[in-house]
Structure formats: structure tokens, C-alpha cells
Amino acid sequence: MKRYYQPEIETASRQQILDWQNERLVKQVQNVWDNVPYYRKKMEEKGLTPADITGVADLHKLPFLTKDDLREAYPYGLMGKPLKDCVRIQSTSGTTGKRVVAFYTQKDIDLWEDCCARAIVAVGGNEDDVCQVCYGYGLFTGGPGLNGGSHKVGCLTLPMSSGNTDRQLQFMVDLEATIICCTPSYAAYLAESIRERGIRDQIKLKAGIFGAEAWSEEMRRDIEKSLGIKAYDIYGLTEISGPGVAFECEAQGGMHINEDHFIAEIIDPDTGEVLPEGSKGELVFTCITKEAFPLLRYRTKDICVLTREPCPCGRTHVKMSKPMGRSDDMLIIKGVNVFPSQIEQVLMEQGYPANYQIIVDRVNNADTFEVQVEMTPEIFSDSLSKISEMEKSLVAALHSMLGIYAKVKLVAPKTIARSEGKAVRVIDKRKI
Length: 432
Ligand code: DLL
Hints:
Helix 2 packs across helix 3, helix 5 (about 105-120) crosses helix 6 and helix 9 (about 215-225) packs across helix 10 (about 340-350). By secondary structure, this protein is an alpha/beta fold. The strands form 4 sheets. An 11-stranded mixed beta sheet has the order 4-3-5-6-7-8-9-13-12-11-10. A 4-stranded mixed beta sheet has the order 18-17-16-19. It contains 12 helices and 19 strands. The protein has 2 domains: about 1-325, Rossmann fold, CATH 3.40.50.12780; about 330-430, 2-Layer Sandwich (GMP Synthetase, Chain A, domain 3), CATH 3.30.300. The radius of gyration is 22 Å and the shape is globular. The structure holds 5'-O-[hydroxy(phenylacetyl)phosphoryl]adenosine.
């Protein structure tokens, strides 16, 4: 069985990877200097010219780019190629402020699809597979990216897009889909729907590629058990291309970053200082092969850890941990830092399904913090006193994880709205 999509790249020596990065970075900086006046100005403000960047060791000298820069330069200000050379636009799923738009040349799309193909082969995908893609198609990168990767691998590709669960399940059964790509929250919903319809034995899935939102190890175990598959993580963001910037392999312990295209750094989100390997901090990407949207030192806001420990799968590219949250998703409640992923971990450890919502408000200048959690039908049929006991036990477990008290409300099954794309976990009603 094919283990790698591009073996000579995916298992290249560290020195080879570094050689590629050094050479491509120098070229890219010159290219951006020549073609992206917005970034050239930022370099000039720091007193830099392309001659100052001779390789990866000089990367830290370059200025950062943030989402604010993307908004300021919207829509065409950060393009590295004239419009006539670009063939595609994608956009982020963000709902506030101006949407971020990213541009692609045909070569950019080709390389992006290679990255997605690497991810599909890493979960065991090959020409014999039927790959059901239920990420949204259109402006969102999830559908188009994995669709392209699936074609490259030679899978029979089912471009379902998101939603219409009945039709998803009908095709999954009739066409005997073996790989599914969607958000983990939608995978959990599909698992629930399969159980309700009693069609588990008609499902032929073997692997799932789930990303675009945070999900815990507990949720992975839950999905694997209920669908009878191996569940793999995939990471990416529109600004850097889309899904496939990093992907999980058979070791299921972190995601390999495609370092021949993207240089990763971890920085202290407060000071911007580069942190030593193994430190937890904000992930920053530099695109060294992209033509149309060549972002340098783009701050993702995602908090994670990088590791170069050898991986049993044989891939040599650096691994990132699951993002532990976003520096801008982190809630500060009653003065304490709270990541939704911590709450999810507690819930799943206690045997609850991953259907929950965190509601934060401010009453009389004090924060209120409520966690609504859906009961399973079994818990729902318990006595009121038992349910109240369970709420108390969750309050204690959350307190021990977070150091603050939350009001916990167990709600009836199916009362929290399901998502076909990214789940809405936090409702912050505070007007600060
Ligand atoms: O979510 C691209 C994507 C599509 C990735 C399909 C994986 C699968 P955006 O809409 O631009 O792009 O959102 C990017 O989503 O900065 C992270 O905060 C979050 N994110 C993406 N993948 C993961 C993951 C797509 N595996 C933002 N785990 C990123 C946790 C993720 N968070």
C-alpha cells in the first residue's frame, strides 16, 4: 500500500528540507519586495532590504503580518501576482469585520491540492477509495481543497458539500464511502444520525479527516468508536491556502506541517519573540512557494507546540500539536483565561456528548458563566435528583480544571443547534 503521496519530499532529510527553505525564502523575500509594495514598506520601516535575509536564520528579522494587515490591504493590496495570472479566490469563514480574501494562481492550487493529497494518503487513502467530502464548497476552502486532493490521489470523489444529512447518509451507504472529510462536530452529528437510523452495519467508512475547528482527544475516541473508523486531524487556514497546511499520519500524535511550502515559527503572542522548540505559543507561517498571496510571517493566532521528535510514520516534517485554542478565542472570565477546549475535555471525560454551549454575560459589572450541556437520552430518563447530582459533579470538575465556578445546566437531547460546518461553542453577550 502507498504510504506517502510524495515520498521524496515527505521523508526528505532535515538538511534537505532546510536547504529548500533557505533557497525558497530568499527568493520569496525578493519577490515580495519587488511586487508587494505594502510589505516592502513594512520592511523599509524596519530598515531591511532583501539582502538582510540570507536564509531561515534571518527570518526573525522580518515584520509580521496580521489579520489587521489583511483588512487594511483588502482586497488586492497583498497580491504577489497581477490579476491576470490569478485563477481563484477563496475566503475565510469569519463572521465579523471584512472577510479575508485569498488569491491563487493555477500553480498555487496545484501545490495546495498536493498538500491535501498527502493528507489523504496519510490516512490510508488510494485509488480504491470513495472519498465523501462534506466540507462546504464555494468560498470556504474545506470542500475545494480536499476535493482537489482526493482527485490527485485517484479516489472516487463525492463532492457532497455540507448539510442535507439524509442525502449524505444515503450516498454514504449506497456508494459505500470509505473516507469522510468534514468538521469533527458534523462527524459527531452524522454518528448520532446513523445510530438513530440503525444503519451502522451498512456503513463502510474506514477513516475520517476532520478539521477546521478545535476538537479534543476525547471527541476523537468518541467519533472513532461510534463510526468504527480511525479519525485524523487536518489543519489549515485560508490565508495560507486552506486545509492541508498540516495533517495527521497513522501515529495520530500531532500534524506534520508541509515544510517544503510553509516555514513555521512559535512566538510569544505578547512580545512577538520567537520561542525555543517545544514551547507553547502562537503559530506563525511564512509561505515560501506561493505566488498569488505570498504572506510572510503571518500570525495565525492559533496556540500550539511544535516538535521535531522522530515520527514512527517516517515523515520528517515538523509536527504541530492540536491547536489548544486561539489567542483571540481565549475567553477571560472573572479574570481567568478559559479555552473552550478545556471545557470540552472535562465534558467528554465525564461521558457527555460534544454538544455544549458556553454562555458568558456581564450582570452588575460581574461576569456570569454558564455551560449548557446536552444529556444523552439515557441520562435524560434519569430522575431529577440524579440530574441535579450530575450537574453538581460537573461544576466541581470544571472548577478543578479552570479554577472558577460555572453554572452548569444539563439540557434535553437535541436542544443545542447542530452545525453542518464549524460549531458555535461560545456565546459571549458581554458588551465590553
Ligand atoms: O478552516 C481551513 C480548513 C478546512 C482546515 C477544512 C481544515 C479542514 P479558515 O476558515 O480560514 O480555514 O479557518 C482557519 O480554523 O486558524 C484555526 O483557528 C481553525 N482550525 C483549522 N483547522 C483546525 C484544526 C479552515 N484541525 C482557522 N484544529 C485556523 C483546530 C483548526 N482548529
